[in-house]
Fold:
Amino acid sequence: MDQPYRLIALDIDGTIRGETLEPSEFVLETLNRCHQQGVEIVAATGRSKISAYEYLQHFPMVNYVISFQGAVISSRDSQQLIWEAPMDEHQVDLAIKVLENHPVERVVYVDDYILVESMTDWASSYGLRNGVEVVVSDSFLDREGSVYRVLAVGSDEEIIQVEKRVKTLHSDSVYATRSLRHFCEILSPCAGKDKALDWLCKQMDIDSNEVVAFGNGLNDLEMLSWAGRGVAIEGGEPEALAVSSAVAPPVEQDGVAVYLSGLLSQNLIRG
Structure:
């Protein structure tokens, strides 16, 4: 008999959020059914905490939010951080210096704002789109607060080179991933959606085999591999499809809800 699942981990963009900003009633009803079975529902996203919370207003059944690619876990009930993996000074300086050698925009995420060298069109639109304050500074050293990631924004080809360089030369010092083809995100080696989920599950006495995780991107690979059942979204990145044990229909067809409905009918979603 298949293993029942006690925790559902959901990426946001491209997984439960498509071109239509608001989720369908079918998605909300299905997740509520899962929640009523005593299952924990966790969002695991590359978004900042503020941006994640803004979208998750539609999803009151989500109890915990893993944000910043797995650098922060917060509780929806208290809206307080319960775990974090910020970058230390050496890791931040290393990331900034590595990116000096590439024609990319550099962005430093500090607490709930982002630090940039100039207010480019991308920086301005990013801040408006995500509800995040954008601060222009002459020096990335002039900051106060916890740094959760350093982001490189550039052409797809350049970002591939950045990621390759970081992973080849500095994998012991920092963790690198890509949420989009033109983003390379550098974080503490203690960060990652899989690591954050592992910590959270240990607090709840939930084994990784009891987790079903949904994702579509390059930043979901470790999470999809770690979970007892990793489910990629049809139309997602080929690498995500390759590491997953199953595929759900596209987000535009409410793929997560369709797949979970099948598990519910088999009595495989229960706390």
